[in-house]
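User: Here's a chain of 167 residues. Predict its fold as tokens.
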Amino acid sequence: MDDRMKQFQQSLTEIETEAEHLLLARHQLVETDRMRNGNREALTALRKRARTTKSSIPSPFESIMKEMEGIESKPLVKEVCPTCGNHDLKEKTWMMFPGTDVFARVPFHAAHTILEKDQIRLDYESKKLQSYVKEKSFLISEKGVLADKISPGILRSLVTLTDKPKE
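Assistant: Prediction complete.
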């Protein structure tokens, strides 16, 4: 084979490898989103059970002011869990641990703490995968593979979009 043919074959192999990585990342992103949604639903169910919402828990300032009216020997700041509220922290609840088929009865506070930490991890992983998918799509586009479907200028503008944090 001449050099041009070897170079063409090598570029096709690189593009195919990048496309496989892109498809794997998209599949992983779907799986991560599925786990995130299940986690979010479990947290919502726990909040309903505790009859709290994120905005129903009094702020630390409100707690201090209510407690200052009464007895002086009480501590000034009472720790109030935003999920539990005044719910019994030691009440046991059933939980299936993420990634396993093991059910266990754990304290209510521990269950939602585990789920909240897992939710943070899944959010981070999802954002990381999204940027990886953007990067791979841009790389494949730069090689000219997607030029017949989407123009490189439009794809570049889509890939360089960034999310603004909510204010």
